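Take just one protein record:
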Amino acid sequence: MSKFGPSIKTAPLPQRPLPNKEILWGSQDGGCNRFPEKDAIWERRYSDNPEPLRAFGLAVSEALERVWIVDEYLLMPDEKNGKSDEQLKQKIQNRVYKILIWLPKRLVANDIRFLTKKHEGVDEDMLNQFQKRAQEINQQPRRAGQCKITIKTDLKEDGKYLHDRFAIIDDELWHFGGTVGGFHASVSAASRGWRASEHAAVEFFEMAWSTGERK
């Protein structure tokens, strides 16, 4: 282009409207700001396979730009004590399967980052399943950009200040009292509907993401 030609500036992406602020429990789809009742609590607590939060999985699958998660136990199931190595491996694999469901081949977002902790039982074959999914996403026709799924397992090496778990989907901040995605069998709430850029959530995530690199 000639240096005398008109200067064309790319307009900033418009901010997507956020959903209403909500507090969610268990596998609820949304719209419920009440604690679960006793029967629902006990049914979930003693379930062999409690379902994660459907509303969160749907939000991830519809992300347009990014999905950032910080949670030291994202890949590690709750009830791991007393399990044989093979049983624990199967439970971890089940968790991986459920997270992969959040990332369908039609996913639009390109920047997928999971910051978690290194756990015994989480092997390279399990982590490579996310790279395979990224390849499947990138093979879809008429896709804009390259999807990259990055998993860092150095959380807590230099980040012992972090207790709660968070996720940023595009510019929506989610806060979890338990594992991101609502995998806990016990009563555990999640809140959504906060604009991440208004609460320094993006800067916080970037700080947490780089803490293990300071050594």
About this structure: The chain has one domain: 22-213.
